[in-house]
Amino acid sequence: MALLRRFLLVLPLLRMAVRSLSLYKLRSFLTVLGLVFGVASVIVMLAIAEGASYEAYQQIESLGVRNLIVQSVKPIEETRKQSEETQRVLAYGLSWEDLNRIRLTIPSVTGATPLREFRQEIRFLDRGLEGRVVGATPEYLQLTSLQLAQGRFLEDTDLGRLRNVCVIGSELAERLFPYQNAMGKSIRVGPKHYYQVIGVTKYKAPTGGAGSSLSGQEFNRDVYIPITTDRARFGEIIFFGKAGSQSFERVELSQITVQIDGLEHVKPTARVLEGMLAEFHPKGDYAVTIPLELIEQAEQTQRIFSLLLGSTAGISLLVGGIGIMNIMLATVTERTREIGIRRALGARRRDIVWQFLIETAFLSLTGGLLGLVLGLALPQAVSWIFGRTTIVSFWSPALSLCVALVVGISFGVYPARRAAQLDPVEALQHE
């Protein structure tokens, strides 16, 4: 009942506010534009930040939160020595013995998947390009979240029988087989090795580097062959020749993906793993990346990024509030005689304050709602035009609208108090 009585008292003031503002439609519209763009920019900025964070999470989570990624790293000093001795074989990185030690000596390890990669020229008839040759196991498909467009992926029988079969990336299939089906065809990898295509993967967006040791990966030019076939056909020494220079590298395994039995064991296992590798690799030719830590770092970075973008966009809300204060001060000057008449007829100071505060609140609410509509539409346009993921969280429109109301009303308090403090006699004499 009390709420209804208050609403009935405020209703005439609301009608008066709408009537007063409608007398100057263009000026009122220009006044709320600051809040419109302020609210919209807050929503859009936070949507872009959330989308970027989501994409980063997807890339890191594809590595597996219960996994550890161990990679071979070329030592800088060894690289310098090799450049001085062109025929020297540079040996570094992980070995099959490391793989066996990880599987047998660490109780929390449920599996370890080896991988070997190097770049070679890949050809079919007169068409060719350089791609990444990946000696893999059947588990690699699940670890990288790859999907097949045709055929099948590598199987245990392919590894056991050292079959010359391969699965190729989508771009490689388009470049080598633009007018025909790649399935069943034989491609040449390197100078003399031929592999039959048994599968083609779907397009997968390239990943950016994650962490200090994981570089970006371009999956669409890959050739996946059984790792046992890779070891038997290519051997452990790979020859690289470019523009008159040549080098030899001996790398048994490029990467080992270690699966852990639980999240609580990931970090302790990483410390044990680093200690074990340090004992057998004094040159430090390895790097251990923990995707779980990368996700935690990404969450912290996302909070800072959202705060920075939200604060930057919030400045436009402040500018919008200043615009409302400016126009309300001008309105007080224009309506001084009206204020004097109302005071002479018995209006109290708080009635004058309420009158101008309701006008300010109406302007703020109108600007906030228009900004809300614009802010919900713009992220979709950004996604469509630039191909970026944008995510509008429930709290960002609600927060921006509330802040717009608070800012607008706060900046309207001073003009309302100034109007209420006018002397009725002087106000009536105002021209």
Structural summary, described in words:
The protein has 431 residues and is an alpha+beta fold. It folds into two domains: 2-59 and 297-428, no CATH class; 67-261, no CATH class. Helix content is 55%, strand content 19%. It is built from 14 helices and 13 strands. It has helices at residues 2-22, 25-61, 76-84, 96-105, 140-143, 156-160, 170-176, 227-234, 266-280, 291-334, 336-344, 349-386, 395-420, 424-428, and strands spanning 67-72, 89-91, 109-124, 127-136, 148-151, 165-168, 186-189, 193-201, 222-226, 237-242, 245-250, 255-260, 286-289. It has a six-stranded mixed barrel with strand order 3-4-9-6-8-7. A three-stranded mixed sheet has the order 2-11-10, with helices on one face. Strand 10 and strand 11 form a beta hairpin. Helix 2 (25-61) crosses helix 12 (349-386), helix 10 runs parallel beside helix 13 and helix 12 (349-386) runs antiparallel to helix 13. The radius of gyration is 34 Å and the shape is elongated. The model is unreliable at 208-213 (pLDDT under 50).
Beta-strand percent range? 15-25%
Please outline the major beta sheet. Answer: 6 strands, mixed, barrel
**Shape assignment:** elongated
**Oligomerization state:** single chain
Q: Radius of gyration, Cα only, in angstroms?
A: 34 Å
Q: Structural class of the secondary elements?
A: alpha+beta
What's the total helix number? 14
- Per DSSP E runs of 2 or more residues, the count of β-strands stands at 13
Give a quick rundown of the structure.
The protein is an alpha+beta fold. It has helices at 2-22, 25-61, 76-84, 96-105, 140-143, 156-160, 170-176, 227-234, 266-280, 291-334, 336-344, 349-386, 395-420, 424-428; strands at 67-72, 89-91, 109-124, 127-136, 148-151, 165-168, 186-189, 193-201, 222-226, 237-242, 245-250, 255-260, 286-289. It has two domains: 2-59 and 297-428, no CATH class; 67-261, no CATH class.
